[in-house]
Amino acid sequence: METNDQVSFEEAMDKLETIVSRLENGDVPLETAIELFQEGMKLSQLCGSKLELVERKIELLIETEQGVERKPFAPVNEDRGE
Questions:
Q1: 1, pLDDT greater than 60
Q2: Cα–Cα distance between 32 and 82 in angstroms, integer?
Q3: Where do transmembrane segments lie in this chain (predicted)?
């Protein structure tokens, strides 16, 4: 697998979808299934990290009476403590 810096979010998701399809199909040898699972976990963590980075960069722009105000992005789950 390429290093994390070389794989885009979209490429990682495509690879992850392919791995999931192969594992769901069930016709891969056990050793291959374990390798695919491990690669899938790495890709999943990579996607999660990239999403976290993007969330930190996003700011919501809120219009107030005084003008436009910037507010840091807060995922919906944070409001519920999840």
A1: no
A2: 34
A3: none
Helix (H, G, I), strand (E, B) or coil at 36: helix
Per-residue b or e along 6-18, where b marks 16 or more CB atoms closer than 10 Å to that residue's CB: ebeeeebbebbee
Alpha carbon distance 57, 62 (integer Å): 16
Identify the three-state secondary structure at position 27.
coil
Q: Which residue has the tokens 């290093």?
A: 3
Q: What is the pTM of this model?
A: 0.65
Number of domains in the chain: 1
pLDDT band for position 65 (cuts 50, 70, 90): confident
User: Whole domain around residue 70: which residue ranges?
Assistant: 4-79
User: How many residues are recorded in the chain?
Assistant: 82
- Grouping H, G, I as helix, E, B as strand and the rest as coil, residue 72 is strand
